[in-house]
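Translate sequence into structure tokens.
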Amino acid sequence: MTVMRSPLATPARLLAVGTLALGLSGCNYMTEALWPSMGGSEPARSSDGPVVRQEIAPSAAEQRAMNSTSAAAVAATPDTGRLPAGQSTAVGQRAQQLRGEVQNLQGAVQQRAAAIQQMRGDAISTSQRYFSTVAGINARLQVGTTPGNPILQSQWNTAAAELDRMSAEIGRMSQMSSQVSADAAMAAFLLDSTRAAYSLSGAVEDDHRQLATVEDEVNRTVVSIDRLLNELNEDIGRQSTYIGRERSNLTALSLAIRNGELFGTGLNNRAFTNVTPPDGSPAILGVAPGAAPQAGNPAQAAAGRRPLMVIRFDRANPAYEQALYTAVSRALERSPAANFDLVAVAPSRGGQSQAALAASTARRQAETVMRSLADMGLPAQRVTLSSTTSNQAQANEVHLFVR
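Result follows.
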């Protein structure tokens, strides 16, 4: 029997196929060893040992390209003039110190402003209570009451206490004005210090920007302080004038309570102005501009003039206050800067002792009239006293003259 054999099954062919397979596997091993996989995985390790990689230095052309790229990146980065974080110059530290002092000053100014508003609120409340009490007294006097009414006297004491509280508010405002003035001095010092810091050496641009910001804050604070100081000065002047006028009114109100009838506001509530004479000489109170001063003796000055009012003491305790108030008030309306002369006139009849007794009594009566004018609010320095005798007088008289 004949057996057919395939040509591939010959031993020579089998040997060739095995050799070819072994050669292909060795080639694959060498490729993986020399050129690693691009997938990022670890290269295959052989059983003989680890794979050794060798770094190749860049060429001169590659190094030049890398240097040009780094220079372009540095050139593209903007120069902010700032130091790295955590570093500062002496000028920068000074700017931070000035900023802290300015913030402290601003906090103090805000506290001052709040305190001023509180004082204004207290002044309004006190004024409301004062005027309410005075209005009650005036209403009671207007409809008529008894002289020296104790209820009205108690109300008058309450009104006087409220007026004293308003005077105390002026003292608080004066203290606050001193504190605000100290803040103004501190702001001026900070402004000078900030401007002087610009000339210090060793600064960067960011330091000067910080100094400019501090200077702007100081300028805004100076404006706030000036406003507070002006408002305080206006309040103090206004309150002082107001309280002085109300004290005069309260004095006149006390006289009205004592007499049981309403007179009016104080006689000192007039606008007084100093007029300079045409010849440039100093102005004299009570003398018309350019006119010659009156004689030193009021009795001699009153000679030949018509008295504004004559008060006759031909009976005990004559009621002259209302007429006196009306006459003096109208005279001040015509001439707010007018002065007054009170002349005690005693009759010259009888013996020497009787004439001396009458003259002494007339002087005491003139002093009583002067105290009445003071109670009505007329300043005592605007009234002069003198005495004389007259053959025509039938009883003691007090003459009131205007000059």
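Note: Residues 298-402 form a domain with the 60s Ribosomal Protein L30; Chain: A; fold (CATH 3.30.1330.60).
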